[in-house]
Design a protein that fits this description.
Oligomer: single chain
Distance between the termini: 54 Å
Number of domains: 1
CATH class: Mainly Alpha
Largest sheet: none
Radius of gyration: 19 Å
Strand content: under 5%
Helix content: 55-70%
């Protein structure tokens, strides 16, 4: 039965909408040492939806510096390479995540809002602990729950069993998923990231975001995403049916050298940052946070 489930999950991963080709091309250009942002804007500009979303995000309070920009090339120059990666990925996953996840008790748009809040939190934690690759923390946070998009339909018929196991045995929801179904959403998420050919650091951070102590190659990134997810849940942002059954790995706090006062400050800073990002309001869909708008690409 588990082998059959594994085959079904593998098939679903390959059927899941992947990152648009122009996004993959732009990310590749952005990783080059001699990157030309005007050329990157020309590539991104081939997708009007992604372009409109990027402009909306770039002009949000969270990213905006000074007057609003109306041309994509100007927005990319203002943001800089690291933040362009963040904004590009954010704009790309809105459509992929814009669906309800019934088994997780998340309405349409909520998985995106939770993921975006976690990304913002991960960036803040990375800054506080002097992790040098803050855009990596943001991206890993943004993608941490991508496995739920696949796992939702398999969980629906076994949700009661998972809840009962978690409650009876006092274990985390993710551990109950693995016990009842043989897989969990974090593990599946790692497989999705690998299928998208994103770097190994993101595969590991997503796959271990509930068990960061098991991360072997990029543990600091896994600890950052783990705590960012926990902080998002503590703020009550789109918690879902499993959020209150998450268990925080104390090793994450120790390894990142955070004390109680620093954690309180981070959560406070995160609360303000998610408001600046437009997440402090009730949005029916992800696009109500970052809607499409007409922009100039050149």
């Amino acid at each position: 039965m588990q082998e059959n489930l594994g085959s079904q999950i593998t098939a679903d991963i390959h059927r899941l909408e992947s990152l648009p080709a122009i996004v993959v091309q732009a990310l590749d250009q952005l990783s080059q040492p001699d990157v030309n942002l005007r050329q990157v804007s020309e590539v991104i500009g081939q997708d009007s939806v992604i372009t409109a979303r990027m402009m909306s995000i770039a002009n949000s309070v969270y990213y905006r510096r000074g007057a609003a920009v109306h041309r994509l090339s100007d927005a990319l120059v203002r943001l800089g390479i690291s933040m362009v990666k963040e904004v590009l990925l954010t704009a790309s996953v809105i459509g992929i995540m814009d669906r309800p996840l019934n088994a997780y008790q998340l309405d349409r748009g909520q998985i995106f809002r939770h993921s975006l809040a976690t990304a913002i939190g991960a960036r803040l934690i990375a800054q506080r602990v002097n992790y040098p690759y803050r855009e990596e923390a943001y991206i890993a946070g943004l993608l941490h729950d991508i496995g739920k998009l696949i796992f939702d339909r398999y969980l629906q018929d076994r949700y009661t069993e998972v809840i009962e196991h978690a409650t009876t045995n006092e274990v985390a929801f993710v551990d109950a998923e693995a016990h009842i179904l043989g897989y969990d959403h974090a593990q599946i998420g790692g497989l999705v990231i690998a299928a998208w050919d994103l770097p190994a650091r993101f595969v590991e951070a997503v796959a271990t975001h509930h068990s960061p102590s098991t991360a072997k190659d990029f543990p600091e990134l896994a600890y950052i995403v783990h705590l960012a997810n926990a902080f998002t849940l503590s703020l009550g942002l789109d918690v879902g049916g499993d959020g209150l059954m998450m268990m925080v790995d104390a090793e994450a706090i120790t390894r990142l050298s955070l004390d109680a006062d620093q954690i309180d400050e981070l959560i406070s800073d995160m609360a303000q940052a998610v408001v600046d990002a437009g997440l402090g309001v009730d949005a029916a869909t992800a696009d109500s946070v970052y809607g499409d708008e007409a922009v100039s690409v050149a």
